[in-house]
Write a structure and sequence with these properties.
Growth Hormone, Chain: A, 457 residues, membrane, mainly alpha, Atg22-like, transport
Length: 457
């Protein structure tokens, strides 16, 4: 007789303790979003890009630096770093997903990659003087680990929640992430805005803030590692060989099997477009604020702080709205708002704080909600026992094509020497994502995966 391993495990008997056990694990799971958001906000979102540009400018000759044999504007480096790490991860993540679905140690893999990412983030503290290359290498490795840990984090979601709970749990995880990332960002905002108060110069204030993100990420990762239980793998395909050979065999079976789930594939295509747009906007917003609109780093960091705390409410609100009208319609509404955001950015006046703050608040409303619901919505189309593999494809397709947005931004900026048209060009990703998402048949996708439909789809 087999032992149940999914979210229904533990039911039966006189008292059904499964809901209490799920709730306990869900509370622990929320804290990984709380932990790794330190990297996505303080490092990737705000400080790394502008600081990398400043370090590279100090090493520039005739206004350009040499990177991999190309003479580039320092201002274009952040838009080039992301594609390098994402292309690497696009090849690595599916293999990791196959490994994860053949082992019960998903939480250990989650924590291991989280701690490795924190280590490489800590190396950013040593980016100073003219060694901007160290910053690029460290960021690429940290971002790679960030993506890998996200695969295992997302794969755990279907194991600790029922289909009916999925949108709420995913949205609350994102809300925890924005709250945690916002709290650390608030501390770093004070340090970077007034470094002399703490006896620091601006460079050291930024470097200590980067280091604080590494410590935060590593420390809070212990909570999900201790609070989530491992589960034995389910429905593993019978393939032969060693660990890597079996994992590649499992991956090949999954890729062939994906054609039997056309709804999941259609959603993946939609997601890779609209999420590419979201990630590029997030990654380039601080550069846009400092280099194009003329704001100092402290003000941009403060705007990101606003985004973080607005996003807490936005994620929860989107989860509640999805309970009323369904996740698909809610995501589509969010994509319309994203289109308006990048269009408005084309006309923002320089050094006018209030329009920039209003745009930041609008981003906060839709940022967490669209991403949280995309995660929970896709989970409905995943057959049981293949969570890590499908979420690895989810992240690999995202990362394997997310360089499109960065490259478009990079090319438009270098052609126009303006961040305004570069940011506006991203509207095409939201339009394509919305068109593809509108074609997704939710009820059919749930049936094909053999999952239970939530009361509102």
């Amino acid at each position: 007789m087999s032992t149940p391993t999914g979210p229904q495990a533990g039911s039966g008997g006189i008292a059904d303790l499964a809901p209490l056990e799920r709730a306990r694990e869900q509370r622990s799971w929320y804290f990984y979003d709380w932990a790794n958001s330190a990297f996505s906000t303080t490092v990737a979102g705000v400080l790394f890009g502008p600081y990398l540009i400043e370090i590279a400018k100090a090493d520039a000759v005739d206004g350009r630096v040499n990177f991999l044999g190309f003479d580039l504007l320092p201002g274009s480096l952040p838009a080039l770093v992301v594609p390098i790490s994402t292309v690497i991860s696009a090849f690595l993540l599916p293999v990791l997903g196959a490994v994860a679905d053949r082992t019960e140690r998903k939480k250990d893999l989650l924590a291991g990659f989280g701690w490795a990412g924190a280590f490489f983030t800590a190396l950013l503290f040593f980016m100073s003087g003219s060694n901007w290359q160290l910053g690029i290498v460290s960021f690429i490795l940290a971002n790679l680990c960030f993506g890998a840990s996200a695969v295992f984090n997302d794969a755990i979601l279907p194991l600790i929640s029922t289909e009916e709970e999925r949108d709420r749990v995913s949205s609350r995880g994102w809300a925890y992430g924005y709250a945690g990332g916002g709290l650390l960002l608030a501390i770093n905002f004070v340090v970077v805005s007034a470094p002399e108060t703490f006896g620091l110069d601006t460079g050291m204030a930024v470097r200590l803030s980067l280091l604080s993100a590494a410590i935060w990420w590593a420390g809070f990762t212990f909570i999900p590692w201790r609070g989530i239980r491992n589960r034995p793998p389910a429905d593993v395909e019978p393939v032969q060989g060693g660990v890597l050979q079996r994992s590649f065999g499992q991956l090949w079976v999954t890729l062939k099997d994906l054609r039997n789930y056309p709804v999941a594939l259609t959603f993946l295509l939609a997601y890779l477009f609209f999420n590419d747009g979201i990630q590029t906007v997030i990654g380039q917003a601080s550069v846009y604020g400092t280099e194009e609109l003329g704001f100092d780093t402290g003000f941009v960091l403060g705007t990101y702080l606003l985004v973080q705390f607005v996003a807490v409410g936005g994620a929860i609100a989107f989860g509640r709205l999805a309970a009323q009208i369904g996740a698909k319609r809610t995501i589509l509404a969010g994509l319309v708002v994203w289109m308006l955001i990048v269009t408005t950015a084309l006309f923002l006046p320089e050094k006018s704080p209030y329009p920039f703050l209003a745009l930041g608040a609008a981003i906060g409303v839709v940022l967490g909600g669209t991403q949280a619901l995309a995660r929970s919505y896709f989970s409905l189309f995943i057959p049981r026992g293949k969570e890590a593999e499908y979420f690895s494809l989810y992240h690999a397709m995202d990362r394997g094509t997310s360089w499109f947005g960065s490259i478009v931004f990079f090319l438009v900026y270098n052609a126009t020497e303006s961040y305004r048209p570069a940011l506006f060009a991203l509207v095409v990703f939201f339009v394509l994502g919305a068109v593809l998402l509108a074609r997704v048949d939710t009820a059919r996708g749930i049936r094909e995966a053999g999952n239970e439909a939530p009361s509102v789809v």
